[in-house]
Amino acid sequence: MKYNHTNLLWTALIISITGAKTFAQDTRFTQAFSTPLKLNPAIIGGNDEMKFMLGNRKQWGNIGKGFNSVNATAIYPLYLESGKEKLNLGLNFLSDRAGAFKTTDISLSIGYGLRITDNSYLNCALQGGYAQQTLFATNLSFDE
Fold first, then answer.
1. Can you tell me whether residue 120 is helix, strand or coil?
2. DSSP-derived 3-state class of residue 61
């Protein structure tokens, strides 16, 4: 049996073009459950109903400006005809300010869930988005 390398080459090309720069989770959450799509995008598969979550966190305010985070998450499940399959849509907005640094992140998640048995599910998801990091240099002070 001859192996077709064309599919592998196309996959590698698409990944290299679209994944030029990736980021890991960098925001400092004390309550990670309030932003489930940042914790793990596939977590939207465990959701059976529409859900909206809002969060605001201010931490370490006595040290400079501390951390200030605002986030909003929406999760919407779409059940397919068979009842065993589910398509999940998620939208996440995050604004995180840590001293002179500010991060703004908007991401969209799409997931697929398959019920294997009554108590077992298989979930997978993809997440993509836009992130901007800003440094406010005018807010910095140096000892001279």
1. coil
2. coil
C-alpha angle 136-137-142 in degrees, rounded to nearest 5? 135
Averages of pLDDT over each 10 residues, the chain, 144 residues: 65 65 53 72 82 83 76 89 83 86 90 85 89 82 74
Q: Cα(85)–Cα(122) distance, rounded to whole angstroms?
A: 10
Is residue 75 within 8 A of residue 88, CB to CB? The reply is: yes
The CA distance from 49 to 74, in Å, is 11
Q: Are 107 and 129 in contact (CB under 8 A)?
A: yes
Is residue 109 within 8 Å of 92, Cβ to Cβ?
Answer: yes
| 91/72 Cα distance (integer angstroms) | 8
What is the reported pLDDT for 91? 93
Strands 67-79 and 101-115, how do they pair?
Answer: unpaired
Distance between CA atoms of residues 79 and 59, nearest Å: 39
- The Cα 38–Cα 47 span in angstroms is 15
Q: Which runs of consecutive H residues, i.e. helices, occur in 3-108?
A: 5-18, 36-39
